[in-house]
Write a structure and sequence with these properties.
The chain has about 160 residues and is an alpha+beta fold. It has a single domain (about 5-150), classed as Aminopeptidase (3-Layer(aba) Sandwich). It has a 7-stranded mixed β-sheet with strand order 1-2-3-4-5-7-6. The protein contains 4 helices and 7 strands, in the order E-H-H-E-E-E-H-E-H-E-E. Helix 1 (about 15-25) crosses helix 2 (about 35-40).
């Protein structure tokens, strides 16, 4: 799959909300347009959109502060999963963050999210903490794993 990755700001809030809803599905509450517009109007926040041809297929929202970066959310539409979209978004986010001075990147993932955990492990993330019963899910509360990886100028 040939992907284009572009940066986006608050003007893309409606598209980001639609992608998030399609990508998150039943795994959790999707963020709405107002949430994306608000987040992206804050300093140190940016979104990456992955498109296959003219079709947007994924997003990553990144937060930057001092020498740290955080993946706030990552979502890929079901039809594009396992096609390298998540890997490409994470790679670009690491490059952007390192280029802006970040030395470490963090994220949280639900313990039961095996596909997400495999993606993050392959991207060099490892567990540094656990947040007990952090996520509400239809089957009950589940732990969040806090993951981190080092960044370098050539991330």
């Amino acid at each position: 799959m040939s992907l284009a990755l572009t940066e986006a700001g608050p003007e893309a809030a409606a598209l980001l909300a639609a992608l998030h809803e399609a990508g998150i599905g039943a795994a959790g509450p999707a963020w709405d347009e107002a949430a994306f517009a608000s987040l992206l109007s804050q300093p140190g926040r940016l979104a990456l959109i992955a498109s296959a041809g003219a079709e947007p297929v994924g997003l990553l929202l990144l937060g930057l502060a001092a020498d740290e970066a955080e993946v706030l959310t990552l979502a890929v539409v079901p039809a594009a999963r396992r096609g390298g979209v998540g890997r490409a978004l994470l790679g670009r986010a690491a490059d952007v963050a390192a280029g802006r001075g970040a030395r470490r990147m963090f994220l949280e993932v639900a313990e039961r999210n095996a596909a997400g955990r495999a993606l993050y492990a392959a991207a060099g993330f490892s567990e540094i903490a656990r947040r007990r019963a952090y996520y509400a899910h239809a089957s009950g509360r589940q732990d969040a794993l806090v993951l981190a990886r080092a960044l370098s100028p050539s991330s």
